[in-house]
Amino acid sequence: MKSVELFTGAGGLAMGCAMAGFHHQALVEWDKHSCHTIRENQHRGSTLISDWCIHQMDVADFDYSTIGKEIDLLAGGPPCQPFSIGGRHNAYSDKRDMFPQFFRAVRELRPKAFIIENVRGLVRPNFLKYFEYIILQLNHPQLLSKLDESWTDHLGRLELHHNSSPKDELSYRVTWRLLNAADYGVPQKRERVFIVGFRADLNPNWSFPEPKYTEEALIWHKWVTGEYWERHSIASKERPEMSAKLRTRWQRNGPSLLGSMTAPWRTVRDAITDLPPPENTDLTTEITNHIYIPGARSYPGHTGSLLDEPSKTLKAGVHGVPGGENMLALTNGQVRYFTVREAARLQTFPDDYYFPTAWGESMRQIGNAVPVTLANLLATSVRTHLQEVASPYKMVSAV
Q1: Quick one: angle between helices 32-43 and 359-368, nearest 10?
Q2: What's the rounded Cα separation, in Å, for the pair 222 and 228?
Q3: How far is CA 212 from the centre of its chain?
Q4: Higher local confidence (pLDDT), 281 or 267
Q5: CA–CA separation, 336 vs 188, rounded Å?
Q6: Is the terminal CB of the chain with fewer CB neighbours within 10 Å at N or C?
Q7: Largest CA-CA distance found in the chain, in angstroms, rounded
Q8: How far apart are CA 47 and CA 41, in angstroms?
Q9: Could you tell me which of 348, 385, 355 has the C-alpha nearest to residue 19?
């Protein structure tokens, strides 16, 4: 199946889609450092991305008529800074708001489906009206705003149009959900908004895959069966005790949730336990991107990620990398920065994916990425449904 990827960054979403069987006809990314990362991995022989055609340019300048093929999937994560809780909160007034460019891509490519990822700040109360506007514009991509028309006036017209049961030439059935990556096997507590749409003429009936990993199962494996500690060869005397707060929660909700047979959340230890300590340079020379970065310190609000929990959300930061989210809290009470390789694992990039830039820039790219595992799961679900809705047409043509 053919796809186009916008706002590609370092390639997390694009990689997950490729793993799901989508073949990118074009990838568009303006940032030279992210493009360098992709090209360097192509040069190093990464088979998964070997045929990617990356266009280093502004999405606003890309000519979709050059694609020339029917596109099954359009995917991308428009810049999140306008809506990020850690950003400037300017939303639609921020020149980095690229949702209008995604609307243009939908109009011109007419993909069978699309996937959009963005920060959870997009659905907070201050931005809910604009989020409604985004969804309705995706529902009806051909209902354009008029010259000098504000987005709020355009929203009013979209609402009237949507409620009149229109028969558009091009329309989409759109659904969205706030997903926590930890619930899908990613060793990171990362909440992001995902918007998925299918072209209405396909008569789709799709829903988000249900999560199969839970915190309750992790609690069970830690403090009821002890399986988690045994798997990591942690002696009984070194195992922490369940906190009073967690014990109360478990007694109230935990046992009733175990009937779903979920898997435990994956932790930082699960993700990096086989990597040697980066301080021991004699053992890390053969591991790419696993370089010790000195200078980490803890202060209120920046205490690092616990080893035996999924990590905090890795972030890129508007004004540099926030130290708290990109630090590991060691069991001895000290903290240190995650290496680039460790951070890449927390975002489920494969170990052979190399980040050729300095630590700060690499962490920015990793913090902006979609976890590869989650991207693959969603893209696989979309691909499977596209195959299902296409099958009746294949049967008709065969007759």
Answers
A1: 90
A2: 5
A3: 17
A4: 267
A5: 17
A6: C
A7: 70
A8: 9
A9: 348
**Alpha carbon distance 370, 348 (integer Å):** 9
Mean pLDDT (whole number) for 175-201: 97
Please identify, in words, the CATH class of the domain defined by 2-211+371-398. alpha beta
DSSP-assigned letter for residue 48: G
The DSSP annotation for 151-214 comes to HHHHHHHHHHHHHT----SS-EEEEEEEEEGGGGT-SB--EEEEEEEEEGGG-----PPPP-EE
Q: In what order do the strands lie in the sheet with 305-306?
A: 305-306, 327-329, 335-337
Token reading at 76: 């991308």
Q: Which two tokens stand for residue 126?
A: 């201050």
Q: Phi/psi zone of residue 206: left (φ > 0), alpha (ψ -120 to 50 degrees), beta?
A: beta
The whole model's pTM is what?
Answer: 0.91
Q: How far is CA 214 from CA 209, 220, 295, in A?
A: 14, 10, 34
Tokens in use for 89? 């909160």
Relative to beta strand 172-180, strand 191-199 is antiparallel
Q: Please write down the long-range contacts of 30-36, taking CB distance under 8 Å and 24 or more positions apart.
A: 30/56, 30/57, 30/58, 30/59, 32/56, 33/357, 33/361, 33/364, 33/365, 34/8, 34/9, 34/10, 34/365, 36/356, 36/357
Type of residue numbered 52: W
User: Going by C-beta distance under 8 Å and a sequence separation of 6 or more, which residues neighbour residue 22?
Assistant: 1, 2, 3, 72, 73, 75, 379, 383
Q: How far apart are CA 1 and CA 206, in angstroms?
A: 18
Q: In which residue are the tokens 């301080």 written?
A: 279
Helices (H) and strands (E) in the chain, counts: 13, 12
User: For the chain, which residues make up each domain, given as ranges?
Assistant: 2-211+371-398, 214-261
Angle at 189 between CA 119 and CA 134, to 5 degrees: 20
